[in-house]
């Protein structure tokens, strides 16, 4: 999911960085000091969850869980995932510096979108119903990320079109895994601690 | 403190060679960004090789383990590697060689090598200039560089709790293992990992509630005091001037070689 420095056309990089800064500003404005500890600890939790490798056939994938991050954090997913991306780039060498905005938009954009679309459904009804919507949200956010990566590549030139198609294809199994896993996580959280999905930013627990 | 981020080998204060560790943290961040922007605007392969070599010179100065740092520099997502391998075949141009009826072009190969060099040079400079610092110092430096306060605080919390939650996850996984859990491609595995993540989130939120209560109990008023006040010293100005002239030289060489390839 991490695009590297120098791969994309400059206009794409700048446009996505501007949008990402907008998302960051939106997320920070919804994050009073009171919520910073919760958001920070959750940001660390998603960072750690991203280190888990899940088997898929003969191979394995590492978790992204941006859908779940969106459902729990709302707009705060932008700053929380940004911190994760900065730490990954600086300390693990994943991704790059000039493409931070691109990578943030690709991951946090779909997270916020699925929260806006599915958030209410995940909160309401029985834990099972919430889990099904949560699963759909988890799969949809990975689909959104794959589409965003493919679009960034396709907009950078025709030479990247085969790579863009490959990205879409390679993420179909990841979508399934993330969907199932997010569904299970939502079911668990709905049973154990339902207010995890309380409207983020409005409730200062 | 932050094992996960810095790796077990680099204990705080374990190695104290004169080098990057003496430089102003703010300067290191600014230079990493400037270097990344510089290499992204380079296009001549020879200049890019020099840029990568310049970043390589920082490795011994940073005090980071050389092997691990180079491995981290080379590690890329599978799809980026696939993209680089596809490029020679998707860019039209002078045919170079063909595999399974597909013709690779010279232009495509050059483009792929260019991206590979750019990405590695930028990441290597970032790893050595910023990744070589204590994560907490990075937070303080970003604050001094006028990054929004709440974003810096969020980062400090993340840095503080990454290790705690990593241990928490390991405990949960050991508990799963002693109960006979073996991961595979099946619903049971995905459900179990889902519950693991769910448990991690529930415990995180409850932990954050205790943290906030403890902070309020100690008079937390919505502001964290960051005590470190970095200062630019003579050595920092020399290093900054040196780095700036290297970057300007790279840009000038690039312009010159692109316009006048002879």
Evaluate the radius of gyration of chain B: 23 Å
Question: What oligomerization state is this entry in?
Answer: heterodimer
Proper CATH architecture of chain A: Orthogonal Bundle
Fraction of helical residues of chain A: 55-70%
The rounded distance between the terminal residues' Cα atoms of chain B is: 54 Å
- Work out the count of structural domains of chain A: 1
Number of domains of chain B: 2
Widest beta sheet: strand line-up of chain B: 1-2
What do these coordinates show?
The complex is a heterodimer of chains A (205) and B (262). Chain A is mainly alpha-helical. Chain A has a single domain, classed as Arp2/3 complex 21 kDa subunit ARPC3. In chain A, 70% of the residues lie in helices and 4% in strands. A two-stranded antiparallel ribbon of chain A has the order 1-2. In chain A, a hairpin with a 2-residue loop joins strand 1 (53-56) and strand 2. The model of chain A has no long low-confidence stretch (mean pLDDT 90). Chain B has two domains: 3-133 and 232-259, no CATH class; 148-217. Helix content of chain B is 69%, strand content 3%. Chain B has ten helices and two strands. In chain B, strands 1-2 form a two-stranded antiparallel ribbon. In chain B, helix 3 packs parallel to helix 6, helix 5 (78-90) packs antiparallel against helix 6 and helix 7 runs antiparallel to helix 8 (149-178). Residues 10-14 of chain B have low confidence and may be disordered. The chains are: A mainly alpha (205), B mainly alpha (262). Chains A and B meet through helix 1, helix 2, strand 1, helix 4 and helix 7 of A and helix 1, helix 2, helix 4, helix 5 and helix 6 of B.
């Amino acid at each position: 999911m991490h695009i590297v420095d120098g791969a994309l056309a400059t206009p794409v990089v700048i446009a996505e960085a501007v949008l990402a800064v907008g998302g960051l500003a939106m997320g920070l404005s919804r994050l009073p000091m009171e919520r910073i500890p919760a958001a920070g600890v959750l940001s660390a939790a998603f960072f750690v969850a991203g280190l888990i490798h899940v088997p898929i056939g003969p191979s394995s994938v590492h978790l992204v869980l941006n859908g779940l991050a969106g459902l729990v954090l709302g707009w705060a997913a932008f700053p929380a995932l940004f911190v994760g991306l900065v730490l990954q780039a600086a300390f693990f060498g994943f991704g790059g510096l000039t493409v931070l905005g691109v990578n943030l938009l690709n991951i946090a954009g779909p997270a916020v979108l699925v929260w806006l679309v599915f958030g209410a459904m995940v909160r309401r009804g029985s834990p099972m119903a919430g889990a099904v919507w949560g699963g759909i949200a988890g799969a949809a956010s990975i689909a959104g990320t794959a589409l965003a990566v493919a679009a960034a590549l396709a907009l950078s030139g025709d030479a990247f079109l085969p790579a863009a198609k490959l990205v879409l294809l390679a993420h179909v199994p990841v979508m399934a895994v993330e969907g199932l896993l997010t569904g299970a996580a939502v079911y668990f959280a709905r049973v154990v601690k339902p207010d995890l999905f309380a409207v983020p930013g409005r409730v200062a627990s | 403190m932050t094992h996960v981020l810095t790796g077990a080998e680099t204990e705080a204060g374990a190695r104290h060679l004169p080098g990057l560790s003496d430089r102003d943290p703010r300067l290191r961040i600014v230079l990493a960004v400037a270097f990344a922007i510089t290499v992204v605007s380079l296009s001549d392969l020879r200049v890019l090789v020099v840029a990568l070599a310049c970043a390589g010179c920082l490795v011994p100065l940073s005090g980071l383990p050389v092997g691990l740092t180079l491995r981290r520099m080379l590690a890329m997502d599978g799809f980026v590697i696939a993209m680089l391998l596809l490029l020679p075949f998707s860019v039209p141009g002078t045919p170079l060689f063909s595999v399974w009826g597909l013709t690779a072009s010279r232009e495509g190969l050059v483009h792929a090598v260019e991206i590979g060099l750019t990405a590695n040079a930028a990441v290597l400079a970032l790893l050595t200039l910023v990744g070589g610092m204590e994560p907490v110092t990075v937070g303080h430096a970003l604050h001094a560089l006028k990054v929004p306060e709440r974003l810096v605080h969020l980062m400090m919390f993340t840095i503080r709790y990454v290790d705690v939650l990593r241990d928490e996850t390991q405990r949960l996984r050991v508990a799963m293992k002693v109960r006979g859990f073996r991961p595979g491609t099946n619903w049971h595995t995905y459900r179990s990992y889902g519950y693991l993540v769910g448990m991690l989130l529930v415990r995180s939120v409850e932990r954050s509630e205790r943290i906030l209560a403890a902070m309020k109990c100690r008079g937390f008023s919505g502001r964290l005091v960051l005590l470190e006040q970095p200062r630019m010293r003579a050595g920092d100005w020399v290093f900054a001037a040196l780095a700036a002239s290297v970057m300007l030289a790279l840009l000038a060489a690039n312009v010159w070689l692109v316009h006048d390839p002879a």
